[in-house]
Amino acid sequence: MRNNLQWHSATIRAHRDLSPSVREFEIRPEHSVRAWSVGSHLQLRVQVDGRDEVRSYSLVGLPDAPGADEVYRIAVRRAEPGRGGSRWLWQRETGDELLIGEPNNHFEIGVKAPHTLLVAGGIGITPILGMALQLARQGASLRLLYAARRADELIYVDALRAPLGERLCTLCSEAGERLDLDAEIAALPPGGQLVLCGPLRLMDAAREAWQRAGRPIADLRFETFGNSGSLPAEPFWVELPRHGLRLEVPAERTLLDVLEEHGVQALSDCRRGECGLCAMDIMSVQGTVDHRDVFFSAQQKQANERLCACVSRVCGGGVVLDSAFRPD
Description:
The protein folds into 3 domains: 8-105, Translation factors (Elongation Factor Tu (Ef-tu), domain 3); 116-224, 3-Layer(aba) Sandwich (Rossmann fold), CATH 3.40.50.80; 236-322, Ubiquitin-like (UB roll), CATH 3.10.20. The protein contains 7 helices and 17 strands.
């Protein structure tokens, strides 16, 4: 779990289905809602096969919206297959108790850019919603591209239509509609920023398009789900010579979770492959490392010298890692 994370009691005040696969939860903390800003996430302790694990969910909407001083709002997509956290949450009912952390923000948005292009893929709308509403309220220049597989997966679209109007563009892949990132980036004025949240493939495509356009990397902000990759998840082994350990990582669990379960201390924070705190040195690998993070560059991933333990996996074997542990 995140180092020094303080857990607090909370209760599910209400929940509602936003689509066949997404459910919104109102979570009331035992004491008071802590101050937060758009782009923040909330960590929850969930039960998966009898184990305590941690999941991170974006806070939805504006921090000063009606009722935001009473509850946190999150939207959870039921992942099938998945690691089990979303299924556990979908089994919770009104009145059930939870343990939550405090809001934390690794996805802050700049408000002084001459234009902001917001891009959301699927459940990636959850942090983008508040950003779009905040920018619109401030009179900022913006455009939001919101892509999903089907029209019924475009959650929160009704909350965006009135404040954004023609600045909102929705696309459904089943209807043959596709994002043209190169064209959208080319239309950005100098100093314009791209803020994006979605699956890993969308992140990679956006970063490649941004680089092709020669745009400053500081003007690209992104966040990913942290659980999607190039290859299907499968079990793999990990060896840590300094600890004298060889461990098995099941397909439905993360390397970081398994390390923590066996007493291997590893720094961590975002648990979504964004901050790089849990990065570990690769000594050797059998098979293919599926780097599911957005912290390392494409060149660093190709070099296979380090991986983010919170999201990265191995297909076709396992990996030998060096840790910060030094035996007495």
